[in-house]
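ARCHIVE CARD
Drawer: 12
Card no.: 0347
Subject: one protein chain, sequence and derived structure
Cross-reference: see card 0346
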Amino acid sequence: MIVRWSRELSSLSTCGRGCPSVARAGEGSAFQTIAGPLTRLALRFRSARSTLSHRERGEASLLLALGVLILFTKTAPAQDNYPSRPMTLVVPYAAGGSIDLVARILAEGLTARLNQTVVVEDKPGGNGVIGIGAVAKSKPDGYTLQMGAVGANVTPAAVQKDYPFDPLRDYVPVAMVAEWSAILVVKKDLPVSTLAEFAYAKARPGALNFGTTGYGSFAHLVSEVFMQQTGISMQHVQYKGGAPATTDLLAGVIDAHMMSSAVGAGHAENPRLKMLAVASSRRLPSIPKVPTMVEAGVSDVDQTSWLCVFAPPGVADGVRERIAREVVAIANDPAYQAKFRNTGFEPLGLDAQATARMYRDEVTRWTAFIRARGLTEKAN
């Protein structure tokens, strides 16, 4: 009997990632492939225990211990040589936007540091749902990642009643890459040149409008924070991205827009609009002449958004930490810091643990604000 069990255990030792059944089912099922037979072997030992001699019980116990060792050695993630093939960094929006821009800078750095090609793949559609879903449902091996942000990965779950993902369950924050803020910009014909003069809007509740990159987007939420702190009321005009909102602002179609610092960097000297204040704690290097909200007389509108690398749930800690280490190194590299800052972003570079803490706090904070402001379950 012990000899037969030993043969069964030997067959398990040759299975795992190279076993045909595992190859068919995928690496993620290696645990079930080995654990099932091992469990049945343990149950047979238990039922036959009373008929075995003291020596045979000892041998059987040793066999089961070896089986457990096989289980963990065969199903442990192959992290030592990670990454061993090209990686994909998915952007859930169209090319040319803020997330895509940072993703390409990061991919360049990761490619150099990991000695593996990191390809940026834009998967727009469904207000980010298609791209996020593609990564969330992918194999958690570290080869398919997502570049995300507040408006993509956090706020939709609080705003939309039927949003298909849980931000704390369906994707894993890996590393914070960079942050950016919003700039309150108005059309050139509006009779205000400073934030103090924007009291013009407060005296005309509902008469002015403001454009954003969509309901529940970071630009929308910062605008809501601004109106809450100032008592100003404006009509919300939604766009499907920053580019069309900026186009209509330049054409005078909308009165105001919380423009991303990345877009604002390219319009710093544009005479067709006026930048009143930045919603950050300090002035931005890309537009140093524009004051902060506090400097301009409005407090508690210090809001920054972040750009973060996400992985599918179930990604190994070792893989997550490896990616995070490389992201931190890139964010601390002077050459890449210059690339981020020249495009209106501030390099952040938080490790896996700090990223997890910050992300959880951000989900809690923005969810509470959205509910308190009555922005939940409104149509996009």
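Annotation on reverse: The chain is about 45% helix and 15% strand. The radius of gyration is 27 Å.
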